[in-house]
Design brief:
By secondary structure, this protein is of the alpha+beta class. Among the domains are: about 5-40; about 55-240 and about 590-630, no CATH class; about 365-490 and about 515-560, no CATH class; about 680-725, no CATH class. About 40% of the residues lie in helices and about 20% in strands. The protein is built from 21 helices and 25 strands. The strands form seven sheets. Strands 1, 2, 8, 9, 10, 14, 15, 16, 17, 18, 21 and 23 form a twelve-stranded antiparallel sheet that branches. Helix 6 crosses helix 16 (about 625-635).
């Protein structure tokens, strides 16, 4: 047999060569794989992404619509706002915003219906404004899930810590986990009801983070409902209405003020003329008194009367085309209010607000009949430091009272002025006096009346007045009464707004200043000389006062009528003066009324929601370590639940960047054919105990192989299913 050559002896066979080559190649591949595995093991495990975007969206999504809608709403309101008080500050009349009902229930009802008094007025469509305001409440339900996603960080951190610390008592049960996942979904209020029902039915404590998630979702639901209710309230109370707009007059051109006419009462208001009963002696007469000469039966005489009497008479009787008497109540600081009568222009009304100067009179009286001595046999009386021989004496200055010649049964009124409040020093009394008029302010006087009220034997209306001796009988059998009065004359500035004296926030638009003593003589002289108009005014005042049934009412009525008459009798020596300030209110415009209370209540609710979302997101960032908590948070979803229970364990153990990567169908390392072969399918199968279970993967194949689709799960397959090995 031939021997192989040496070269052939060392030549490997083909089989050996192939074996050697395969072994070498396999060894090389294994080394490369080992090297790759070592390299991969050194790389950090991937983490589920999206923690920061979820926190950012959880804070941003609630804020953006709130900020944008609120900014747009306020921009429209303030850009189109109309300033209703464009007038002068001193003429600021009270508006609805300044008036509050002291009844708390009525005030609350008014706030409910109209949104309260404070409001903005704008030139804008109210329906569009209400629609814009309601956008937030319509958007919030769609962004609830982003807010609950932030709460999920707290839930993930809580579950993770309890698991690591081996505290099973702080971990949720499967049912509780289902409730938690539904709460974190934040789709509607049903999860809240499920939470309440679980607690009620099982009497079992709900472990955290279920109470936290339920509280957060409850807050979102409640704040959403409140914002919706506030939107409705705001829309219902935002209405169009006609509003008066004020326009300032930079240069006043109306003459509603009144001042002494310098042509009649110039620098020197006094004029010396012969005294009434002594033509050889001169007396001082104020500028409110006029005189004229006349001849009767060949004798030359001088007559006195009120200056510009026609104007005074027209004003007194209320038929002047120029003047009118108005009154107001005013009380200085911590003083009781008093009635003031002042001279005004007939042109005052509601279309023009103004500030002007004028003169005013305020009088206070008290009944003095009971303090006086009535001389029934002489028909006279004595009061304080004054004695009158008869009630028919009318108080003419410069004349002897004993010369009173009126019939004793004639109704009469009289007046006597004094230097002092104690009524001890009469002025102008007697035919020898040269001091006729009261040059002082205030002025003090007694006034008396006879014949008012008339005697009535049928009724007993004035019995109380008679029993108190406020009304007494004269010697002629007529009713008489006597009043003690003080009148003060003022120069005043007053503010007229919206058809009346300005009165706002307990501040009066009436500013009286006590006039100089000369005004006392000017205003008292028409009564002191017993002029026809003066006597008529006194008689009217006495008659009106006499029918009052209490002494105070009698005194107050006479005081008001005297003040009114004193102003009227000097109207002729007054002239119009230009207003100090003016503003017109005759421009009416249809504006939208935006009540402030509903507006800012709505904005406050939105701000609470937005700021709450930001605060929770910041706390989640600080307290939960969101990058790690994201691993649990991402699995507190339906995706996380399905991948955790229906995918093979080896897929769940693999670190991923997205939950969907756990699903076999998304494994990028496999071909489409491999995916079709290896991917798990999910089905549902009935057990031999009558229940139904989900089955997937190999278990599902065994079910199909052993029993068919319609079979019942038994044996080992059933055991696998029941033990939780679904895949």
């Amino acid at each position: 047999m031939a021997q192989p050559s040496a070269s052939e002896a060392f030549k490997p066979s083909i089989t050996e060569e192939k074996s050697y080559s395969t072994t070498t190649t396999t060894s090389t591949v294994q080394e490369l794989k080992s090297s790759d595995a070592a390299t991969e093991s050194q790389k950090p495990a991937p983490k589920i992404q999206g923690a920061l975007p979820d926190l950012f969206l959880g804070a941003l999504l609630p804020c953006v619509p709130v900020v944008l809608v609120t900014a747009l709403l306020l921009t429209l309101i303030f850009r189109n706002r109309v300033n209703l008080d464009q007038g002068w500050p001193l003429l600021h009349a009270p508006t609805q915003e300044d008036i509050y009902d002291p009844n708390i229930f009525k005030a609350a009802l008014q706030i409910k219906q109209s949104g309260g008094h404070p409001a903005y007025y704008i030139r804008f469509n109210p329906a569009v404004l209400a629609a814009i305001a309601s956008w937030t409440s319509k958007i919030i339900p769609f962004i609830t899930s982003s807010s609950m996603a932030v709460i999920a960080f707290f839930a993930g951190r809580r579950i993770l810590n309890a698991t690591r610390d081996k505290k099973p008592g702080e971990l949720p049960t499967p049912h509780q986990m289902s409730i938690l996942i539904n709460l974190l979904g934040g789709a509607d209020v049903k999860p809240l009801w499920d939470t309440f029902a679980y607690r009620l039915e099982n009497h079992e404590r709900l472990v955290q983070p279920i109470p936290l998630a339920a509280s957060a979702l409850s807050f979102i639901v409640i704040i959403t409902l409140l914002i919706g209710a506030a939107d409705t309230w705001f829309a219902a109370s935002t209405k169009p209405m006609n509003v008066e707009l004020l326009t300032r007059h930079l240069q006043p051109n109306n003459t509603f003020g009144r001042e002494l006419n310098p042509a009649m009462c110039g620098g020197n208001i006094w004029e010396k003329r012969p005294c009434p009963s002594n033509s050889q002696t001169l007396c001082n007469y104020p500028c409110s008194i006029d005189h004229w000469n006349f001849t009767s039966e060949g004798s030359f005489s001088v007559k006195e009367g009120i200056k510009a009497a026609q104007s005074a008479a027209e004003t007194l009787l209320g038929n002047s085309y120029v003047n009118q008497i108005q009154n107001t109540s005013y009380g200085a600081y911590q003083q009781a209010p008093q009635q003031y009568h002042y001279l005004a222009d007939v042109g005052t009304g509601q279309m023009l607000d103004f500030m002007a100067n004028t003169s005013a009179v305020s009088t206070q009286c008290k009944v003095a009949t009971q303090d006086c001595q009535i001389e029934r046999n002489k028909d006279g009386f004595s009061c304080y430091g004054y004695t009158s021989p008869s009630f028919t004496f009318q108080g003419d200055v410069g004349f002897d009272p004993a010369m009173a010649a009126a019939p004793s049964n004639m109704s009469a009124t009289g007046i006597q002025f004094f230097k002092d409040a104690a009524l001890q020093s009469p002025i102008g009394l007697g035919n020898q006096t040269t001091e006729l008029f009261s040059v002082q302010n205030p002025i003090h006087f007694l006034t008396w009346s006879k014949g008012f009220p008339p005697i009535d034997t049928i009724t007993q209306t004035f019995d109380a007045m008679k029993q108190g001796k406020y009304l007494q009988l004269s010697s002629s059998g007529d009713n008489i009464f006597i009043l003690n009065c003080t009148a003060s004359i003022y120069t005043t500035i007053y503010a007229w707004a919206n058809g009346t004296i300005l009165a706002a926030n307990n501040t009066s638009g009436f500013y009286p200043t006590l006039a100089s003593p000369d005004y006392g003589a000017i205003y008292s002289a028409p009564f002191a000389i017993n002029s026809a108009l003066g006597h008529l005014a006194l008689q009217d005042a006495a008659a009106l006062a006499a029918y009052k049934t209490t002494p105070q009412d009698m005194a107050d009525k006479f005081a008001d009528e005297f003040s009114r008459a004193a102003v009227a009798l000097t109207a002729g020596i007054m002239q119009p003066s230009v207003n100090m300030l003016e503003q017109s209110r005759n421009n009416t415009e249809l504006l939208t009324r935006v009540p402030k209370i509903p507006l800012y209540f709505l904005i406050s609710l939105k701000a609470v929601y937005a700021l709450g979302s930001v605060a929770v997101a910041v706390l989640a960032w600080v307290l939960t370590d969101p990058r790690e908590a994201q691993e649990v948070k991402a699995r507190l979803t339906v995706d996380g639940l399905m991948s955790g229970f229906l995918e093979p364990t080896e897929r769940q153990e693999k670190a991923v960047e997205k939950v969907k990567e756990i699903y076999g169908e998304h494994d990028q390392s496999k071909t489409e054919e491999e995916k079709k072969e290896e991917v798990s399918k999910v089905g549902i199968q009935q057990t031999d105990k009558g229940g139904w279970v989900w089955v997937a993967g190999s278990v599902l194949k065994e079910v199909w192989t052993g029993f068919g689709v319609g079979g019942v799960v038994k044996g080992e397959v059933a055991g696998a299913v029941m033990s939780g090995k679904l895949g």
